[in-house]
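[Automated response] Your request has been received and processed.

Submitted sequence:
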Amino acid sequence: MGAGIRAEVSLPTSSPSPFDGVVDGSTPIYSVARSRIAPEPAADDRPAGDDGEDGGMPDDETPDDGVPDDGTPDDGEERDPGVPADAAGDTVVIEFLADADLEVPEGVETVFDYGRKAAYRFEVPCADESPFSVLDRHGVPATETVVRDGRLLVTFHATDLPTLRGVLEDLQESCADMRVLRLLQSSTTPEESDLVTFDRSELTERQREVLSAAYDAGYFDHPKGANAGEVAAELDIDRSTFSEHIAAAQRKILATVLD
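Generated structure:
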């Protein structure tokens, strides 16, 4: 059994979300499905020999595009097969369920009417910053996608902690307003089964500065590398101010850890 982690993240419905301009988040949508379509290659881009003639190259030559005969890019970079390195030119088709009377902009069509609910479909250019493109690059599919309370909620499974960290870091880079709502460790995993996450935006900029300075100075070490007065002097603040900031930061962190 795998040591998987189920993650649920919250993002705005605005750009880089593909739902930007399609829904405002006031009406719930669910059962989101997505299909990615690559453009048809132009006739000039087809490999030699596609017309049935022998247009191949000698075995000891490399095509002009710099890709050796084994298909490996000559830039030395290893790429995950099946995961596009560049989304430029691709189109994404998105379908979702919502109330049948949902007002949608031009370009969004109703593809099936269930009565009170309906299935809607639209196409958008594939954007590298889209949360779904981020998941594509890591080879991680979105297992559940809904819009609720004005936010885009995406659930996915990571096979291990390094994959989880990579996905979350890239999501945060593409969307600063990304929030981690829930992390659930696989029940078959004997280690790290009590996984929690802390949103650093909970700390004020000053609290993060004081906490970082205290950590770097060895304030939390045993024995201490520096006392409160020494760290406060380094920050050019009163000892009482330092104690106030460090206590507030610790309360927020421990509230998450001990919840």
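Summary generated for your ticket: The beta strands are 5-12, 30-37, 91-99, 109-113, 117-125, 142-148, 151-158, 179-185. Helices lie at 131-137, 161-174, 205-217, 228-235, 239-257.
If you did not submit this request, please reply to this message.
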